[in-house]
Amino acid sequence: MKEIPINKYIRYLCVISILVFFLNKFYLRPWVLEKELPEFFRIFVLSVPNLAEAIVGTLLLTGILLQIRQYFNKRLGDLKVTFIHLAAVGIAGVYGISQEYELHNIGGNNVFDIYDVIASIIGLMIAFGLIQKFGFIDKTELNNE
Question: Is 38 left (phi over 0), alpha (psi -120 to 50) or beta?
Answer without folding.
Answer: beta
